[in-house]
Amino acid sequence: MDFKTLTDRLSVSGQISADDLPRIKDAGFRAIICNRPDGEGNDQPTFEEIERSAVELGLEARYLPVTSGMVEDSQADAFGRALNELPGPVLAYCRSGMRSTTLWSLSHAKDMDPTRILATAKAAGYDMGGVVRRIVNGGKTPTDSGDAKFDVVIVGGGAGGISVASSLKSRMRDLNIAVIDPADIHYYQPGWTMVGAGVFDPTTTARTMGSLIPKGVHWIKAAVAAFEPGNNAVILDGCRVVKYDRLIVCPGLKLDWHAVDGLVDTLGKNGVTSNYRYDLAPYTWELVQGLRKGRALFTQPPMPIKCAGAPQKAMYLSGDHWWREEVLGNIDIQFMNAGGVLFGVKDYVPALMDYVRKYDAKLNFFHNLVAIDGPAKKATFAVKEPEQEPRTIEVEFDMIHVCPPQTAPDFIRVSPLSDAAGWVDVDQITLRHKSFDNIWSLGDVMNAPNAKTAAAARMQAPVVAANVTADILGGNPQGAYNGYGSCPLTVERGKIVLAEFGYGGTLMPSFPKWVIDGTRPTRAAWLLKEMLLPPVYWGAMLKGREWMAKPEKITGEGTVSA
């Protein structure tokens, strides 16, 4: 018999016997709840037998039987009352623990976030997908689903979602498409590095979501609570249900600011900033301009993160400003990287190292930011260097640029769509889900081993659009994603190392070397980033114009052609 902990107050298990009760008491439990009706199994002791032995040991016992697969709303309410009335901790049991977990999930649906309920149950080994609508509906059985139905539902209105909606519309004008996203504002996030360096005005990186939704595409302004892929349904907050024939999942990823102790309390003050937030990027530039001497830290968390070069871009542009202001010699620049290399594609490292030396930046590998004391201006790092004992160090700073830890969104991690690490599980070539044939994914949320950048989404959107279209027409996948991603590494104001690569770190330059040599810093790459990419994003990518982004074609089993 194994106890599966749900909360400090409640654990669940499969069927117990009277002989198990001493061990249950020794484990610290003070009460038990039986959720299995007597006589359900031939080898099952009656509740009366369990109760008698429990009372002799000083344990309280409660009988709340539930028929398998038939948990009623009133039973969930009774379970919640019992948990409040009984001394804790409590052990609830049934045949496998599933009914007890279901009762707990429904009893807390009014006072706990649905994703937290689903994650807690999943961590204990129980899938609450069968009652997710009831959980989202506050624990009650929905009486009216009010289903809306679309040919294609797209979850996420970011770069991937708007682009794939436009690309689909360009292929099949009559397609009934809905985009689900609760946000009012759509951001051009690649521009925030330039905001943090005083190059872009922040307002140029934001537009209203309504102005970008393609004509003829429905915008459902709501948050997704859960998925029911077996029923071709997306459950929204409030238990509204949206049905689909085909689903595209691209909600981006979650910036986990709370994963660093003390960070949330000090962001935007005490010299703590981040270009990963629209409202904080201007503060980065304010700090850079104001720092004349002292220590500047730039952090990078464990992979994967969006735009893996962004943490060091902030360092280079800051260093360039201090160099131009002739105060660089008074500033101690340190790059605190949880990983073990400066950049994952070795061909670009020599050019980057030239700038590390120019700015006299110290590279600290295997240093992961775990806590910040803003008022004291101290940052704590967990250091796990190879062949050395793990240790913790504290580093003082005058300015710190933080790249937060990043994960898939909570509602993705607890869903049937995710892999073991929480990302949407897709075939890396077709971007089709490995388990559900009518689901595709693109952008930062899926698990293909590519760089998580807007440039990657620009290439992925036409692939997904081509493959969804082919599926609607009854054909095989037509588009192949080669892993392309781009990271314009802003090494100084006016020059960029334009890193372009695909799966396995294969170099995939878009231009001849005489135009832009991506392994070297060039003015041409800077002009591309500053002058050309923003209008390409707003006016081409989000409009379904696939300039330099036509998907490679699958010509046969496992083969691809340009």
Write the layout of secondary structure elements.
Blueprint: E1 4-5, E2 10-13, H1 21-26, E3 31-34, H2 47-56, E4 60-63, H3 73-85, E5 90-93, H4 98-107, H5 114-123, H6 132-136, E6 148-155, H7 159-171, E7 177-180, E8 185-187, H8 192-195, E9 206-208, H9 209-212, E10 218-220, E11 224-228, E12 233-236, E13 241-249, E14 254-255, H10 263-266, E15 272-273, H11 281-290, E16 294-300, H12 310-324, E17 331-337, H13 349-358, E18 362-365, E19 367-373, E20 378-383, E21 391-396, E22 399-401, E23 406-407, H14 410-413, E24 439-441, H15 454-472, E25 479-480, E26 485-492, E27 495-501, E28 521-522, H16 523-539, E29 552-556, E30 559-561
Parallel strand pairs: 2-5, 3-4, 3-5, 6-7, 6-13, 7-10, 13-24, 15-22, 16-17, 16-22, 17-18
Antiparallel strand pairs: 1-2, 8-9, 11-12, 12-13, 14-23, 19-20, 20-21, 25-29, 26-27, 27-28, 29-30
Description:
It is a single chain. The chain is built from 16 helices and 30 strands. By secondary structure, it is an alpha/beta fold. The strands form 8 sheets. Strands 6, 7, 10, 11, 12, 13 and 24 form a 7-stranded mixed β-sheet that branches. The longest helix is centred in the C-terminal third of the chain and has 19 residues. The protein is globular and about 85 Å long. The mean pLDDT is 91.
